[in-house]
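Help: read this over?
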Amino acid sequence: MGKIYLEEGIFMKNQILLAKFIFVYILFLSILTILCSLKKENDIAQFLKYTTLSNEQNFKVLYNQYKKNSTLISEMLQQNKEIMNILSHTKTTDKNLKIINQKKLLDNPFISYKVLKEVNIKELHFILPNNESYLFFSQSKIYKNYSSNFSEITEYINQTKKPIGGFIQNDKLENITFFHPLFSSKHKYLGAIAISFDTKIFNNNFHTTNNQKFTAFTYLPNITYNKQLLSKIPHDKFDNSYSFYDYSDHTITTLIPIKTIITEELLGIFTIQNHSTYINNIINTYYISLLLFYLFFSALFIYIYKINFKFKNTIKQLAHELHIQEIILFKKSKMAQLGEMIDSVAHQWKTPISIIKLYAEHSILLLQSKNKDIKKVVEFQNKSILQINHLVNTIDEFKAFYKPVSVLENIPIKAVIDSTLILMKDELIRHTINTNIKGDTTSVFSIIPNEFKHILINLFNNSKDAFIKNDIDNRIITLNIINDYKYSQLEIYDNAGGIPEDVLNHIFEPNFTTKNNEMGDGVGLYIVKKIIEKIDGKIEAHNTNDGVCFKIKIRNIDFIG
């Protein structure tokens, strides 16, 4: 029965071990997946950040090139004496003269349609210091007075007399316009010139220069019709450029916010889109790495499990062999005690047999005498029966002690102690050792009685040897029974002088003894410890003032498990 329980316990332990391995394996792979995923997302985020900065920088480079061109044109205009002379007379009230001057300005070869087209200028607009539009013309040669759609900007430049440029609200992202102040040779402020470039040409230049798949300016009201683009724009304030990756067609899209001059309100978006094999490689590398990690660590965990399982089986085999050795040691110890018990029984029988012999001889003499004292003969017979009962009890206890029973019983500990004292009676008397039992004598212990007797005999014999070695006169072994709600406890202490402290910590180790080879082999207390641990108990030892105390703790039956 015990073997079946042992095998079931081993099976359950193997199942628990396998469950633990599976749990650790899944947990480890989950953490690995999360870490690899975070690494992938971080690499993609870093590349998108780099792409955003790169596209933003390319946009600024081209924008600054247009700005530089507008500055160069402004400087060339100021160096043209005819143009500057015309602009110096813009305050005339003569309408005919004003028309003549405007016609001269329009016919000037420097700002002809051909020149404007060559330098990609879409529109030129001359603005007077009072914010009045003086002349507006474009590549289409349209000549007219023009109602300015950027009065706020002209007011700014006329006040600050500093150049400014960018995108204008009412232009709907069709132009990039730069404003430059104009001064006469005498540094008199003559007004400003607005130089506008076509955003389509800007877009084509950017597309060609940077080899992009797609680029476009999108006016803010038109974004509402583009649901895909609208979903990518942040709901909060769109201040900074950013990029995102489309997993469906493997493209990176960068959105650069376009804001108005001065007020910096969002006017629209410049979209840059191109294919990316790099991010696709990052994703492929992630899945390949993850697969390789899975395969490697799966193989590693299987290998570790097999090694551990093999190690467990080896430990199991060693434990089985150790168990056999313990059984052999236990039987060896019991056989050693058998010799002592036979000697003890011989001593215990010697006196009763001598008394019975004496009673028998006296009874024969009484029966042969003339005055037959039958009453005395009966008395001798009764006393002989008492002695015979003592012999029978002794042999019964001896038989019970060596009966191979290994089942836990709930038994009064006092009965087990009394039975052991009967077996040890002659030894204790011969060495003048007294015993004292105190405490809860009704306490019931859950033990294997014969094996517990073996424990007591070992401890009694150790005390006996210590009494003899230390030549103690008043020899007492005390047994104190303690019972609480969780543990049944038995304290066995003597006044034999105790155990040296450097030895005390090793007394339960196998093959450890302080006796010579004839007195002991070092397995007694080791077997005692093993017997107690087998029934989920504990034993510990400590020195007292005049001896040593062994404390045995057995878990009560209600708390076992």
Notes: The longest strand covers residues 189-198. The domain at 55-275 is CATH 3.30.450.20 (Beta-Lactamase). The CA atoms of residues 431 and 464 lie 7 Å apart. The radius of gyration is 56 Å.
